[in-house]
Amino acid sequence: MARKTLGDFEHQVLLAILRQGGESYSVPIVLELEECGGREVAQAAVFIALQRLEKKGLLTSRLDDEAVARTGRVRRYFKTTPLAMQRLRESRRVLSRLWDGLEATLEEA
Amino acid sequence: MPSSSSSPLLPAIPYWLRWIFHLLLNDSDRASALGDLGELYQLRLARDGQRATDCWLHRQWRQYPFRLIAERFRRSTGLQPSPLQGEPRRSEEPVQNLYRDLCHSLRSLGRTPGLSATIIATVGLGIGATTAIFAVVNGVLIQPLPYPQPDRLVKIYTASGANRYPLSVADYLALEEQQTSFDQVAGYGNTTFSFNQGDTAERTLGRRVTWTYFPLLGHTPLHGRLLNASDDLPGAPPVAVVSHSFFSRHLEGDPGAVGKTIRLDGVETTVIGVLGSKAGALEQGKDIFTAAGWDLPPRKGPFFITALGRRLEDVSLTAATEELRAINRRLFPVWQESYDDQQASWGAMDLKEAVVGDTGTTLGIALAAVALVLLIASANAANLLLARANQRRRELAVRTALGASRGQLLQHLFTESAWLALGGALAGLGIAVAGLGWVRSHGADYLPRVHEIGFGPPVVAFLLAVTAGSVILFGLMPALQGSSARANAALRSAIQLSGTTAQRRLRRALVAAQFAVAAPLLIGAGLLVGSLYQLQRVDPGFDPENLLTAGISLPGTSYPDEAATVSFWTEAIRRLEREPGIEAVALADGRPPSEVWQINNFNLMDRPTPAGESQPTGPWVAVTPGYFQAMGIPLQRGRLFEQRDVDEQARVVVVDQTWANRYYPGESPLGRQMQSGGCTSCPPITVVGVVADVKYQGLDQPGDGTTYWPFLISGHDTGFFVIRTSGDPLTAHSPLRRVVADLDPSLPLFRVATAQELIRESLGTPRYLSFLVGTFAAVALLLSIIGIYGVMSYFVQQHTRDIGIRLALGGGQARILGMVVGQGMRLVGIGLAAGVFGAFLLTRLLTSRLFGVAANDPGIFTAAALLMVITAALTCLLPAWRASRLDPARTLRED
Questions:
Q1: Chain A: residue nearest B72 by CA?
Q2: Which residues does chain B have within 8 Å of residue A43's beta carbon, measured at their own beta carbons?
Q3: Which residues of chain B register pLDDT less than 50?
Q4: Which residues of A touch B67 (CB under 8 A)?
Q5: What is residue B2's predicted lDDT score, i.e. its pLDDT?
Q6: In this structure, which topology does domain A8-108 adopt according to CATH?
Q7: What pLDDT is attached to residue A109?
Q8: Subunit contact B86:A8, Cβ cutoff 8 A
Q9: Backbone angles phi, psi at B8, to 5 degrees
Q10: All structural domains of chain B with their residue ranges
Q11: Is the alpha carbon torsion for B640, B641, B644, B650 positive or negative?
């Protein structure tokens, strides 16, 4: 069976949402990623990553009815799910272990 | 376009991009995506300024379509972006993946240029030929006629028994007056005009039409006007509408030529209008249209008018036909004295059906043949790609080891096939364009509507569909095989050197399938070639060696009566007979083997046709007394025509053997009398002689029984010279031209041809069909042989060790040869068995195109099968010979 995997970029998008308080829409996510990564991020990439994460059950989404009523703008908010939190914790644990003791090596390189 | 496709915060979205958004995203996703993009745009505008933000926006626009399409593709194929969390393929960016796959596939194909070129060439040939034939089918059979509301157009004809023939002037005038089922009816008779320009005279094909002809078909003039009712009155000043081709060739394309006169059949005729360059199927090859100006005739015949009608919107074809029959019944008693075939009635058929005729069968055969070639080409390409996937097992194993999923491998391999298909499509496009150019310039003799054949949207759609179909045919199986888990496991083990068992089986199955598809094609080609051979062997009934024929037509203005025409014909014959090298000269109004201008009905006086039954019909050929000698047709009984028949205006005919056997079996037909053309008041005609049979209605048609009647007493103004020479028949052309020019310099000769050329022309359709299917069959055989060669070469490579051991243990070279050839022939045998069975079912479709051979002719089936077996065996011998020459010691050492 094909595993529902989590790519680098999807990982980053999830973290950006967490940094926005666990719920956000694509504009602040793009800005957050650009600020942290120091390079331009395509909005299309974020838009598709959000759709894909929702399909994987790592995000849920809702349309912001207030924004629609107030500005006529349709804005879709995405919120991390407990499954996303579990995957992120697992990912951090694995990466932390792998990094452990490597600082010196990295410095030397 | 809905408003949600745009955002008030954004500048105008490119139109094409709006469509992509509309197609790939639902309303709310589209609105939120564009809304967020608009918000980002405004933020950047405030921060970075207009110019930088516009550049950014363009980058965003470029990103969106590719990403959306790639995502849709990924979802529809279920491909995972990456099997490994955080692996370095950056699988979160499928666009880059796809782009990289595209680039990498192209490089990868470039490393095997021979193989890539072979696949592109073979698949391109299949795609191109299939598309070209489809374009012909589309232009000729599928597309409606290029007239307004073409489904309402019908052709009206007279039907008597199985015969269908045109209407007469009397018929047409009654039809025009009495019908209520049609918006309009029109009539025309084909003719040739002698067109004089300066000192030269040219025979031009044309048509005498009623004034309703052009409005009925919805024609509008390019210049000037078309005919009107007053032009069509008997005795009206002569006017002509000319084709665009005539306008360009003879009137220098000058619109000022409208209103000026041209000389047609010796008469100054005013050009009143020019048709557009794309006139229509009915006008193909016709240059001049003059007003018919028909007046009520003294008798019902002759029958030479093609009548057309445009049905009223609410009248069905059946209802219209019923009315036509009713008019014909009312008309019968009026003309009974000169026409008493009560069975003859009127009918109507769809005009397109009448124009297209039976070309559907020929084109259907060609399309089926070329589709089979495409199948074989695809199987061949699949085989080559399977071999390639096998060669690349290490590379694929490395990819798998590095974490590439099956989906990724599948995408990569399929991308390669897509490139090859694209190359094939481009090559096919070139082949199709060239093929269609050839058909348009050379096909008019064999096909109707050739000027309507082109690359319209249906043909482009077909090309794309065939390309997509072929990429699935030849790309899917190798891609699935190359990316399969079992294959990868085997590849990783790096033990098996020649691919998995499944791969080997698949390749063998493909080769067998190629032979299975090639067999019916080769058998079909064999049947058509056999049929052509039989046709060429048919005795035409005359001696075609050293015989020249040429047509000539005497315009009514210069030759107003029978005395004038007879004087011209007699003098021309007399002068030609005196020319050196000319042995005999005669005139006739028809030319064997397939040109007869009159099919006449007749009533035998001693065996009259019972009331209510149709009279017998047969070809009637008017000839001068010297015709039989000039043509080499032997007299069998009675006498031939003599000068006294002409002098006495004798009502005599000579019949052929088939006629005699049909109407007077076991009796002498000499002295028997008949009345022709349904005329009951005309004096009877007497049979005075019987000659051998000659083919006048095609070499493939059984004789209907020909009747010959005297040319010089029947007031003919058009005839064909038949000149027997002592040497090369073309040497008679120059004296013929000179004699005619001496008598009347304004008369052009037309359709000059030797009898051998006439025979060749009559076999044009069977010849080009045999050539077409034969070529496809040869290509199919070649591709199948390439297939078997590839598979057997791999077999030898795969069994090198085996063969080495056998040779080391004393196995003779002959046994090795036998083993390898036997392996190959097993595949060929399986394919051939299936193919021959298929051919038994398929060749029945050829029946209507076969002559002298049965659709399941055992000789041709056997010959085709033997040809395939022998060529395949010879092909297998090559790898087998290499195998038998292996050095066992070296083979085992290497192993």
A1: A48
A2: 33, 36-37, 40, 60, 63
A3: 1-4, 82-92, 491-492, 494-498
A4: 42, 44-45, 48
A5: 39
A6: Arc Repressor Mutant, subunit A (1.10.10)
A7: 60
A8: yes
A9: -65, -20
A10: 3-78, 162-342, 359-536+764-894, 556-745
A11: positive
